């Protein structure tokens, strides 16, 4: 979906009322993806029945028996708990395909489940599309079953599988290429033809966000704990990265002068393992842990890809469903008390089109920017008595590129501006990047006057939105 008035404004020559964007810039599809914020991950397959994390590929397909499979229950649960899309493991490392592919003999068609006529991907895509939730597919390049793995022919097989999945079950908002690359059945490693894989995905839909260690659509954040780096650039020197290479720190922070827009995605499981197992029903992450993950992923400008693995019945287990509901309630409570300042003023405004009051209006294309000559721009807020914010949410307008490098929050106390303590580890008095979103918890003493000071930036800051919230009750 394009925003008509904004597209019109952006298609005008820059310079008049709006600042010049600074490349690299996101595509509209990447902006839509970043606005999704929370997506569900569904690890499902023979491992759900064997208890293994990495199936060997030699499992008897007949162990796959999700007697009550109900993808509508998955979609309804996600819909009701603010999970805005889903990615399913169409094929994990064991090579078992959740759809009856023509290109492997290790699939749902070789099971006795639904007399070998079942098709998990068909049920999944139908149920999620009916719920208006975008679908995505994880297809492990590493395949411990396929007889051609480790030979050039496997690349043909894999590309055919991508084609089949997207033809039958697409369109996909995201396609997930896992970087894990171990041995295949013949003991050989595969040399993957990544450009060919990407080309096949894009031939179906150029807007699909391709995930891998280095993108091109979005990147792995460098850990599986759901935690983004405090300094989180959406940019990356993309062409230096190949899936499966270890550059965790670089992937976490991205590159301030990176060549391409490749936002970080935080994947984490709600349980200790990626696949469901009975013994972990009591080890579902607590609401406090999930809130901490949320604040360190979405709150640091990344998407959160939260894995909620279906159980051996083919249902999201009641312990996970309950926790998802509680997590949704906790987020709602966290943002339940919006606080509006009595007044706002900025050090300067780029033009009448970028008035500072725009930051209270979430309408796309409405932004604040200071004058080019403003070397330390700030925005000041005055609050009425007893309206002390506990949380500040900042968003840059990414249509103009990511710009802010360092900013600080201050309160007016004893006749002077004093930096506020923030929950940042590295810079207790300063914060670094903002990007899509930055959620910062603060502890002002008087709370009457707050100020955001932009200390360093790649180009003058362009802010999409600033919100304040009181303590949740
Ligand atoms: C990893 C895999 O090896 C895990 O099994 C899981 O699928 C995770 C999301 O990615 O690389």
Give the topology, please.
Layout: H1 4-11, H2 28-36, E1 38-42, H3 47-50, H4 71-80, E2 86-91, H5 120-130, E3 135-139, H6 152-169, E4 172-176, H7 194-204, E5 209-212, E6 218-220, E7 235-236, H8 248-253, E8 260-261, E9 264-269, H9 287-297, E10 303-307, H10 318-334, E11 343-346, E12 378-382, E13 391-396, E14 404-413, E15 416-419, E16 438-441, E17 449-457, E18 463-469
Parallel strand pairs: 1-2, 1-10, 2-3, 3-4, 4-5, 5-6, 6-9, 9-10
Antiparallel strand pairs: 7-8, 11-12, 12-17, 13-16, 13-18, 14-15, 14-17
Helix pairs in contact: 4-5, 6-7, 9-10
Label this structure with key terms.
eight-stranded parallel β-barrel, alpha/beta, TIM Barrel, 10 helices, binds beta-L-fucopyranose, 18 strands, Jelly Rolls, 2 domains, single chain
Describe the structure.
- By secondary structure, the chain is of the alpha/beta class.
- The protein has two domains: 28-334, Glycosidases (TIM Barrel); 343-469, Galactose-binding domain-like (Jelly Rolls), CATH 2.60.120.260.
- The chain is 22% helix and 19% strand.
- The chain has helices at 4-11, 28-36, 47-50, 71-80, 120-130, 152-169, 194-204, 248-253, 287-297, 318-334, and strands spanning 38-42, 86-91, 135-139, 172-176, 209-212, 218-220, 235-236, 260-261, 264-269, 303-307, 343-346, 378-382, 391-396, 404-413, 416-419, 438-441, 449-457, 463-469.
- Strands 1-2-3-4-5-6-9-10 form an eight-stranded parallel β-barrel, surrounded by four helices. A five-stranded antiparallel sheet has the order 11-12-17-14-15, with no helix packed on it. The protein has a three-stranded antiparallel sheet with strand order 16-13-18, with no helix packed on it.
- The structure holds beta-L-fucopyranose.
